[in-house]
Amino acid sequence: MEKKLRFNSATIHGGQSPDPAYGAVMPPIYQTSTYAQTTPGGHKGFEYSRTHNPTRQALEKSLASIENGKHGLAFASGLAAMDAVMKLLQPGDEVISTNDLYGGSYRLFTKIFEGFGLKFHFVGMNDVAKVEAAINENTKLIWVETPTNPMMNVVDIAAIAAITKKRDLLLAVDNTFASPYLQQPLNFGADIVMHSATKYLGGHSDVVLGSLVVNDDDLQERLSFIQNASGAVPGPMDSFLTLRGIKTLHVRMQRHCENGRAVAEYLAAHPKIEKVYWPGFHTHPNHEVAKKQMNDFGGMLSFIPVGADHKAAIKIIENLTMFTLAESLGGVESLAGHPASMTHASIPKEEREKSGVVDALIRLSVGIEDVNDLIKDLEQAIG
Fold first, then answer.
1. Of the CATH numbers 3.30.43.10, 3.40.50.620, 3.40.640.10, 3.40.250.10, which one belongs to the domain with range 7-246?
2. Are 5 and 65 in contact (CB under 8 A)?
3. pLDDT tens for each residue of 265-293
4. What is the CATH number of domain 249-382?
């Protein structure tokens, strides 16, 4: 099979081939911890499943293909993947990241790695000049989310990459909200792409898994060592489920984008909604950047009802029937959440509100149901 495939084909065939044993079209679930050896070190490429597993390897090849990268690595969760990236650094190193970061990422940075001597700076990455101004001699990594969670801010990956290449810094991009269907950060100069594959890649709210994709061989070797040495790897069943999800990523994302646009436009026109955050609006900050680096604008959005406070926002969420009140995002079903008390509760209130994550903010992950039913649900919930 040719190496370079168009995206819709890569989701199904990228890095894949029939299983050599019996020609299985889908990679089998190799539910084994160890492998027989003919002599010490004499094996068929696999010796222990923390190090390598055929099902996980099939997933890692697929991940690399859909991100237009060379090497994929799978982890037990998105945070486990982030943890591996942080372990590339040494005490005294500094990291620059977005100021409206996912709460779990913020917690990992500030509650875990600050204790090991790393220092983190959180800046508004809408303005690339702020990123460059924060760099000093100890800066080693710039960590980008785009679009951000939950304010949907768009960061210019190519502009940040121009800075990191000039300064010999690593650039990592959390691509969870967009998925490779909408953007491929390696194409814009990123060194590392991270996914919580629990979300759009898995797509069915039935698996927890994380991934990294890189092009550089040395970086892959270092991360692979950390992956094996630290051991935060996914099992074969989770790898199988994620690989199965990837095969329909392109068709699911088309519907997520269509429905996301319809819901965003409905909310923007609603007299009881004060503000909608969605990158597809011409008025959205860095909309032109989103047009440049994204193929569409996705199914994630946030909004603030007119005059709402914490109590009013919670009431709307609790009134929803088709949108399920739940953590996570990116599944086929629509989900609603309250970032201040759910995904971003680990960030101090003062810090949250500086970046716009106020108590009245509601976040939606728009699924692939009939969009008329979704709008009807919002209509009755908002009142």
1. 3.40.640.10
2. yes
3. 999 999 999 999 999 999 999 999 999 99
4. 3.90.1150.10
What distance in Å separates the CA atoms of residue 362 and residue 352, rounded to the nearest whole number? 14
Query: Which candidate in 83, 100, 156, 174 is catalytic?
Result: 174
Please confirm, yes or no, whether 102 is among the known catalytic residues.
yes
Active-site position among 102, 106, 181, 200: 102
Greatest alpha-carbon pair distance for the chain in Å reads 74
Q: Where are the domains of the chain?
A: 7-246, 249-382
Annotated active-site residue 174? The verdict is yes
pLDDT at 3: 62
Phi and psi at residue 247, to the nearest 5°: -65, -20
Closest to 305 (Cα-Cα) out of 283, 266, 276, 327: 276
Whether 90 has a pLDDT exceeding 70, the answer reads yes
pLDDT digits (tens, 9 = 90+) for 133-146: 999 999 999 999 99
Contact in structure between 145 and 103 (CB atoms under 8 Å): no
Upper half-sphere CA count for residue 59 (Cβ side, 13 Å): 33
Q: Is 30 an annotated catalytic residue? A: no
